[in-house]
Design goal:
Elements lengths: L3 E8 L3 E3 L12 H12 L3 E5 H8 L13 H12 L1 E5 L10 E4 L3 H10 L5 E4 L1 H9 L5 E7 L7 E2 L10 E9 L3 E8 L2
Parallel strand pairs: 1-6, 1-7, 3-4, 3-6, 4-5
Antiparallel strand pairs: 2-8, 7-10, 9-10
Helix pairs in contact: 1-3
Length: about 190
């Protein structure tokens, strides 16, 4: 059975994007960027909601070809482009870069994918991750909490019908005051 990991950068008040989908507050340090790149390297399959997919696919397919791309960005772009991905959307018709499109029941498909043999999967996008969270499918949460308050926007966590007990796995302070925490779901 595969492990499902949900992780993103978020504000201290719990938002992954400020109002208007503004993520300008989220400028990762080299160390945080390398952490996310290493996470990507250790991931067998990435699951995306439509909005996050459109954000990622608008930059990373050619991110390694940008004149100002750092070595870390070049490495991340290559890893992202080459890895297997699944996008869940009923509003887009095509995807590219080792990606499969699923328009049906996301929770049923994520449950099926988790039951397969294979390495870890990550899930991104608040709506998609929220559905997996409510279904009890998330095994690990990775929060890179920035010292900024957005006051509103897209929350990292969704409303739940019952609480989820977690075990703290790691806490690390990164440059710029970002606190990285990892929690495993206690089952």
């Amino acid at each position: 059975m595969r492990k499902l990991i949900y992780g993103m950068n978020l504000t201290l008040d719990g938002y992954i994007a400020a109002p208007g989908d503004d993520i300008g507050w989220s400028m990762p340090s080299d160390e945080l960027f390398q952490f996310w790149s290493d996470q990507l390297q250790a991931t067998d399959l990435s699951l995306y909601g439509r909005k996050l997919w459109q954000t990622m696919s608008s930059h990373w397919p050619t991110g390694d070809q940008q004149p100002d791309a750092t070595p870390a960005e070049i490495e991340f772009a290559r890893r992202w482009r080459d890895m297997s991905k699944v996008v869940f959307s009923s509003t887009i018709a095509t995807v590219d870069w080792n990606t499969r499109l699923v328009a049906g029941d996301a929770v049923a498909e994520i449950t099926r994918l988790k039951a397969e043999d294979g390495g870890p999967m990550d899930i991104g996008g608040a709506t998609l991750a929220g559905a997996a969270m409510r279904a009890g499918l998330i095994d690990e949460y990775v929060l890179a909490t920035a010292p900024v308050l957005a006051g509103g926007g897209t929350p990292f966590f969704t409303a739940l019908d019952s609480w989820v007990n977690l075990n703290l796995v790691e806490t690390r302070t990164l440059p710029g005051g970002v606190i990285l925490t990892r929690y495993e779901t206690r089952r």
